[in-house]
Amino acid sequence: MEVQLTNRQQHILWATVRHYIATAEPVGSKTLVEEYDLGVSSATIRNIMGVLEKSGFLYQPHTSAGRVPSDSGYRIYVDQLIQPSLRSRSVSQTDALASLLPRSGTESLAKEVELALQKRLHWEDWSLETLLQGAAQILATLSGCISLITMPQTTTALVRHLQLVQIEAGKIMLIVVTDGYETHSKLMDLSPASEETQPEPEVIDRELQIVSNFLNSHLRGRSLLELASLDWSQLDREFQRYGEFLKTSVAELTRRTLAPTATQIMVRGVAEVLRQPEFSQLQQVQTIIHLLEEEQDQLWRLIFEEPEPEDLGKSKVTVRIGAENPLEPIRTCSLISSTYRRGSVPVGSVGVLGPTRLDYESAIAVVAAAADYLSEAFS
């Protein structure tokens, strides 16, 4: 649920987060008055910061210190206050907030990532592993974070043949044969609208053959994941009653047979990030390095997210902040990730890992640009 802050509260939270990201020092009201054109007194800012603290968006590390953003404060900042999120807000909210917040250079940064990848990576000359290592290094350099790029999935099964078969009254089996001659099946009940509308078995057999021909003409040579995104409304009116059955059974069959397998993760930028003040404790550094080196399978499951069928082909950047990360070693970090695709099918992931005090707007732009570039190259 979106938290509703006033424009003034939003502006002060934005300024506090921005200043803390830049300096790693607790932020006081006097600092905000001196460095940001907030148009209000220090006392007013102090009162609003107190309200934000009571709401859980800021906290004081020491009694006499200024305030720093909490995980919840960063979440509000990412979801509501940075430029990529402004496009999804209502016009009135966007105009009001845009008048307060300066525009960032995320578009130019995304272009910088794209140009760097195009200039320094040569797909026709290098091996796949070398290319992804190079992309990971560029991502780490431009983001200032640990970069994570997974090797692509090697199992991208394509549909060779589909068949719908009536097993008994009201029970139909969907059989899918892939290009590797593997066979997958799903048995489902086909419930009639009423007893009077139940067709004869011979009629159902003919209809199932027609629907099978329809499916083969649309899906042969496409991935199993794409099978679930077929527009069932294209079925002729008399076959519409099979649509919901097919949609449900295909989605379940796809999830069951296309469980992704963990692959190697290219990791770059560790040394630079570990110089940040958040990683001053040796034990914390050791647990992060152990995760990156010895437990990549856990990290892989976190950054490679299979989209729902309706989201195929869409770019989506996931931001996990602090305690939102389920893995203990990185619960004081933020992980930003997206998938890269072959066509509309996700085959790998791109991500950056850094302290919660990171430039989210830039990191999101970098990850999105890198994922889009790799998707274009793989396609």
What does this molecule look like?
It is a single chain. Strand 5 and strand 6 form a beta hairpin. The chain starts with 6 loop residues before the first helix and ends with a helix. The strands form three sheets. Strands 7-3-10-9-8 form a five-stranded antiparallel β-sheet. Helix 7 runs antiparallel to helix 8 and helix 13 packs across helix 14. The protein is about 45% helix and about 15% strand. It folds into three domains: about 90 residues, Orthogonal Bundle (Arc Repressor Mutant, subunit A), CATH 1.10.10; about 170 residues, Beta-Lactamase; about 100 residues, Enolase-like, domain 1, CATH 3.30.390. With about 375 residues, it is of the alpha+beta class. It comes from Nostoc paludosum FACHB-159.
Q: Structural class from helices and strands?
A: alpha+beta
- Fraction of residues in H or I helices: 40-55%
For this structure, what is the CATH homologous superfamily of the largest domain?
A: GAF domain
Query: What profile does the largest beta sheet have?
Result: 5 strands, antiparallel
What is the H/E order? HHHEEHHHHHEEEEHHHEHHHEEEH
Unreliable sequence segments: 85-104
